[in-house]
Amino acid sequence: MCVSVEGRSIPVEIISDRNRTFSTLASKYGYHVDELDVTTEDGYILKMYHIPGDRTRPVLLLPGMMQDVEVFIVRGNKSLAITLATSGYDVWALNPRGVGHSRKHVHLNPDLDSKFWDFSFHENGYYDLPAAIDFILERTNERQLSAIGYSQGNTMFYVLGSTRPEYNDKIKVMIALAPICFLQHLKPLVSFFLTMISIIGNLLRSIGVEELLNDNSLLKPLFQMLCTQKGIGYELCTQGILFVVGDNHPNELEPEFLPKIFVNYPCSVSSKNVVHIGQVVLRRKFAQFDYGPEQNLALYNARSPPKYDLRKVRMKIAVFLGGNDGLSTTGDTELLRDELPNVVDYHLFSGEKLNHLDFVWGRNMDKYLFPLILPVLTKYD
């Protein structure tokens, strides 16, 4: 069932739950959450969610692109955040700049100042992560923390470790779920899609559109309406809109769960971030943002942007990937593993055929994934 809101048709399930947050979900399952603001070096005000636990065992969670940290708790008692909290960990979840309640700045207005959206995953790794890590370590009086990054949430750690190598020593272990770094082994249709999205992103930036998929956009309610329609909505969404993530299996992402996902998904993303992802595809290199030869010379002292030196990423990294992942492919993840100097665990889920989204939304991750994550965390505590 849909209702009309400001002239748009929105599923009633989404209307009734549209104020849902990480905190309200945690409270529903019996956990108190502290909501904290973290200010970055360049003035962005990020929202951090904290489920108190053993302060000697802090764990930082980072979501993927177009996602809010609630992806780590929306499955309730079968979610990663609740599993960690139940196991006694001090759980911290960060929304990077521009996402959810991290849509703030000390000077800039995200609705009026296009400069607010002048960032990609580079700034997430270079500014957002150091601010969050230092904040947590100061609050816990610890020297190190563990981290779990999903998709672009672990891309940020490769940026951090290579550009601010001193932060490698502040990470006990980083668990990389469905890692995104190299994008050279995509299926042709997925590669074409990401390339076209990047071209569109450049066109939008040229006319001053710097934010995509905000709450006032036409696309967001369209996605929500299409993907939550009974009957055709499930197939249309999983086989059409979400085709890039890999083949869907109803055992993991069941039809009745889709309305819960689309309460807050997709979240805002900067046009620049979309373009940067496209550049990684087109240039076949994991490199900093390409501004064009002239501006590159001014910024990088070279006509081409520098590659991120993954040899500097000395933190311990445990990699988990799905055999059915359309974005984090086996070939690209093997390239990443060979470049990183300190991969301590590498696990391919081949039998379960997990796709890219299953790592955060899959119904059976408490059976397949979490029993492997917890021993890794324990080993490096």
From TrEMBL:
The protein's matches in Pfam families, at most eight in alphabetical order, are given as: Abhydrolase_1
Q: Does the keyword Signal apply?
A: yes
Keywords of this entry: Glycoprotein, Hydrolase, Lipid degradation, Lipid metabolism, Signal
Biological process according to GO: lipid catabolic process
Q: Which GO terms describe its molecular function?
A: hydrolase activity, acting on ester bonds
Gene3D superfamilies, per database record: alpha/beta hydrolase
* Entry annotation: catalytic residues: S151, D325, H356
Q: Where is the AB hydrolase-1 domain?
A: 58-179
Q: Which family does it belong to?
A: Belongs to the AB hydrolase superfamily. Lipase family.
Write down what this protein is called.
Lipase
The scientific name of the source species is: Parnassius mnemosyne (clouded apollo)
